[in-house]
Amino acid sequence: MPHRVKFLLSLACLLTAAGGYIFMVHIGQKGPSYAVVFLGLFATMAMWVFPEVMKKNATSLK
Description:
By secondary structure, the protein is mainly α. Helices cover 71% and strands 0% of the residues.
């Protein structure tokens, strides 16, 4: 995946997590708001750390 696409996905994930955090705090859910922040950060880091799955060609296996 190109770095530009990965960066835009990371930005969207972090903005969504921030929005979820603000929403959860607004409705008075303090504990789940921390989970939203953790999962947003974890998903963003996992996208950069773990490699993208590539499908091998059938001809390269021979």
